[in-house]
Structure formats: structure tokens, C-alpha cells
Design brief:
Layout (H helix, E strand, L loop, with lengths): L4 H8 L4 H14 L1 H11 L3 H15 L11 H15 L2 H22 L4 H17 L5 H18 L6 H24 L1
Length: about 180
């Protein structure tokens, strides 16, 4: 592929409305990912978020009796696609937290995990904590409650994971406390 986005953009500007609609229809038909992206961008709804959540959880913690492998990269891709298609920060944060919760439960229940696995969970957890200040207050309190609930299953995991989870959550608590102190001044 020698032509980049600039060439595509230039060509798109020359298309009539009907031609654009036909092009988007063809993209819609070509793959489930495109369909999900277009639904997320153009007709977002709670069901869309729930479908993404189910797929993320299944990728991180598939039914142990199935022969499905754990697919961390797929879960991360789904979260990234959701964020790009919907531009929904609250939903994206929810998916990242579902990813961490499912991964933590997986590790606690089945003893699964390695360095890369836990690094992915901690990256997502850091992203959740970093997103908190930008979330609406009603969403923030729900996320903070879920973060507190993460401590117990994390405590049943090895690899230093419980300490890392506590550190990330404590970082958030310190930031909130410092913010409250600044507000009082």
C-alpha cells in the first residue's frame, strides 16, 4: 500500500452523498468489526457496551471447560475499538475495569498468569485510575467502588500482583485526598 490516508481523504471529498453511503454500506457488509464500529459511532446504545463487555470478559476468562485460549491482545483490541468507535470515556473505563476484574478472577480462581499477563492487567488498571478525574461524578463513584472490590480477589493471586493493585488504588486515594486539600485552600 503506497497511498496513505491523505489520498483516501482527497478521493472521499469528491464522492457524492449516495456514493459515500454505498461505500459505508460495503464496509458494513465486509466484517463484523466494521458493523460494530459503525453501530458504536452512529447508533450507540447500552446493548453495544454490553456486547463488548461480554467479548472482553470471554477473551480474558473463557469458560474453563471450553477449549478457548486466553486472548489478552483480543480483549485489548476490543477496548481500543470501542473507544475509537464510540468516543465514550465512561464505557471505555467500564470495559477496562471489566478486563481487570475478569483477569484477576481468572488468576485467582485458576492460578493463571505470567509476567506479560499481569503487566497487561496493571496497564489497564492504571488507565482506569488515570481516567477517573475526567469521569462524571456518578460514574466515578461506581468505578471507585469496583476498584475497592478488586482488592479481595487480587489478594488471592501471587506474582506480587496484590501489592501492585494496592499501590495503584492507593495512588488514586492519595490523588483524591490531595485534590480535596487543594479545594479546601
Amino acid at each position: 500500500m503506497t497511498d496513505g490516508w491523505g489520498h483516501i481523504k482527497t478521493r472521499l471529498k469528491t464522492l457524492a452523498t449516495g456514493e459515500l453511503i454505498d461505500l459505508i454500506r460495503d464496509l458494513y457488509r465486509v466484517s463484523p468489526e466494521n458493523r460494530q464500529f459503525l453501530h458504536g459511532r452512529l447508533v450507540p446504545n447500552a446493548l453495544n457496551l454490553e456486547q463488548y463487555r461480554e467479548r472482553v470478559v470471554d477473551a480474558v476468562f473463557p469458560d474453563p471447560l471450553s477449549r478457548k485460549r486466553i486472548r489478552i491482545a483480543e480483549a485489548e483490541r476490543l477496548i481500543r475499538n470501542f473507544r475509537l468507535s464510540t468516543r465514550d470515556d465512561v464505557g471505555t473505563t467500564d470495559l477496562m475495569l471489566a478486563f481487570v476484574e475478569a483477569g484477576t478472577e481468572q488468576a485467582a480462581d485458576l492460578g493463571y498468569g505470567d509476567e506479560k499477563y499481569f503487566a497487561a492487567l496493571l496497564r489497564a488498571l492504571e488507565s482506569v485510575v488515570n481516567a477517573l478525574p475526567s469521569l462524571p461524578s456518578e460514574s466515578r463513584s461506581s468505578v471507585e467502588e469496583r476498584l475497592r472490590g478488586l482488592r479481595k480477589p487480587a489478594s488471592r493471586v501471587g506474582w506480587g500482583y496484590p501489592d501492585a493493585v494496592r499501590d495503584v488504588i492507593a495512588k488514586r486515594a492519595r490523588a483524591v485526598q490531595q485534590g480535596d486539600e487543594a479545594d479546601e485552600r
